[in-house]
């Protein structure tokens, strides 16, 4: 396990080496303080450019690069707006497509209104937007999903500068849970919907979305959805408040040269079709799953274990996108970034919601913003059962779980037990981790 997510400082992103050139190009246009927070946000945008390709997850299921959702969380005035600049840069082709679609719709509306009531009205054209407005209503969202499905199953992408906009898209906050889960799982909308034309449908939801919000708004929005799967399905990227250095961060100029370099990578996403198995990525994902289980056992944290499962899927999808960007080849730096994405997502979740996973609250202090604690690291190399019991008590865990935790540690060869002394000892294997 390369990262300690129990600290209040973010896991340091690895160097972007061979295979991550597209990510480096995109980061060249944002201020340095936003590099790490923005990297997880890039993959839902890029993944929306892949249509007609499936990738095999280690469980042998086939997944598309849709259903990718990420929420950037930072205080007001902390440069979250730079994400929108990146979105527009990456989605220039989406904008061009949607402008042409809008012209078709406007022309139909003109002809429709010009016909007398006794005349036969023209049929509404099949219009599908790839990049709908951020304030899209639920009816328009579903109607667009129907059109995208009819035209071959393209993914629609939405960027929401405020988290509350998701309520409008989902039809109200009570519907957020079901809608976001359906989006993540590439399910159908869940009910027949009536459109302005009287058409009903239940389309397959191929959607990627990014959201920006403050910590307060984020906690308020998700507070009732921490244990129903919605919380785990969303990737979070948290930027902690920085020191007052008095310097205004500099952004790039998005030159023509930048767009030419970027377009070379975007075309790789657009032409990717078929089914693929990325074996090095799947091998890495299996290893990370074992690491997450070990980390959950060391912290005796079921919430961590539950959250990590979907963090792995989200990072794996990001790995699929990188593989396509890198001419369908895999490199170690790409694997390093996938691993960091898993830990950064979990760290961000714990920084924002750690206290709320135990109690209902609207505010959290810096002292409460801590990730899962490795209890074995807090014990001496040789320790007794009583010492672990005392540690569990200080962390708010029950003494009754001590025996089960010790058995897990022995099973994973983190510790060994001496019947002669009645003490436990950390193994050499663990100390080398």
Topology, pairings included?
Elements: H1 21-27, H2 35-47, E1 53-56, E2 62-63, E3 69-73, H3 82-90, H4 92-114, H5 138-150, E4 156-160, H6 165-170, H7 176-184, E5 193-194, E6 200-201, E7 207-213, H8 215-222, H9 230-233, E8 235-238, H10 256-270, E9 274-276, H11 279-299, H12 302-325, H13 332-353, E10 382-383, H14 385-394, H15 402-411, E11 415-418, E12 423-426, H16 428-431
Parallel strand pairs: 1-9, 3-7, 3-8, 4-7
Antiparallel strand pairs: 1-2, 5-6, 10-12, 11-12
Helix pairs in contact: 2-3, 11-12, 12-13
Keywords:
3-stranded mixed sheet; 4-stranded parallel sheet; alpha/beta; 433 residues; 16 helices
Structure explained in plain terms:
The protein is α/β, with parallel strands linked by helices. It has 16 helices and twelve strands. Strands 4-7-3-8 form a four-stranded parallel β-sheet, with helices on both faces. It has a three-stranded mixed β-sheet with strand order 2-1-9, with no helix packed on it. The protein has a three-stranded antiparallel β-sheet with strand order 10-12-11. It starts with 20 loop residues before the first helix and ends with a helix.
């Amino acid at each position: 396990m390369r990262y300690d997510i129990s600290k209040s400082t973010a896991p340091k992103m690895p160097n972007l080496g061979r295979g991550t050139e597209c990510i480096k190009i995109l980061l060249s246009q944002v201020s340095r303080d936003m590099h790490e927070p923005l990297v997880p946000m890039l993959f839902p945008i890029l993944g929306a450019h892949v249509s007609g390709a499936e990738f095999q997850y280690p469980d042998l299921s086939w997944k598309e690069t849709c259903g990718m959702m990420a929420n950037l969380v930072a205080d007001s005035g902390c440069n979250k707006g730079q994400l929108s600049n990146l979105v527009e840069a990456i989605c220039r082709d989406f904008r061009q497509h949607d402008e042409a679609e809008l012209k078709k719709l406007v022309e139909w509306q003109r002809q429709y209104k010009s016909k007398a009531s006794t005349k036969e009205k023209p049929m509404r054209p099949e219009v599908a937007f790839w990049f709908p407005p951020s304030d899209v209503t639920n009816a328009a969202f579903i109607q667009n999903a129907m059109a995208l499905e009819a035209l071959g199953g393209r993914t629609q992408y939405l960027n929401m500068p405020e988290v509350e906009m998701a309520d409008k898209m989902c039809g109200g906050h009570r519907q957020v849970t079901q809608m976001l889960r359906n989006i993540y799982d590439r399910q159908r909308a869940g009910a027949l919907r009536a459109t302005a034309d009287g058409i009903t449908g239940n389309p397959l939801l191929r959607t990627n979305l990014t959201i920006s919000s403050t910590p307060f708004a984020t906690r308020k929005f998700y507070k009732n959805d921490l244990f129903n799967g919605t919380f785990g399905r969303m990737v979070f990227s948290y930027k902690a408040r920085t020191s007052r250095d008095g310097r205004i961060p500099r952004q790039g100029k998005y030159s023509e040269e930048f767009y030419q370099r970027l377009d070379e990578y975007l075309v790789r996403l657009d032409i990717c079709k078929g089914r693929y198995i990325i074996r090095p990525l799947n091998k890495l994902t299996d290893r990370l799953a074992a690491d997450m289980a070990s980390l959950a056992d060391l912290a005796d944290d079921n919430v961590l274990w539950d959250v990590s499962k979907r963090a792995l899927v989200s990072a794996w999808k990001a790995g699929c996108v990188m593989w396509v960007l890198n001419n369908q080849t895999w490199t170690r730096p790409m694997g390093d970034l996938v691993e960091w994405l898993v830990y950064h997502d979990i760290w961000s979740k714990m920084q924002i919601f750690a206290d709320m996973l135990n109690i209902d609250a609207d505010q959290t202090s810096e002292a409460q913003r801590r990730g899962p604690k490795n209890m074995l690291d807090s014990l001496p190399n040789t320790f007794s059962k009583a010492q672990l019991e005392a540690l569990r008590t200080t962390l708010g865990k029950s003494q009754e779980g001590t025996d089960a935790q010790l058995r897990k540690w022995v099973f994973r060869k983190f510790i060994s037990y001496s019947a002669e002394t009645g003490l436990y000892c950390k193994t050499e294997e663990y100390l080398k981790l």
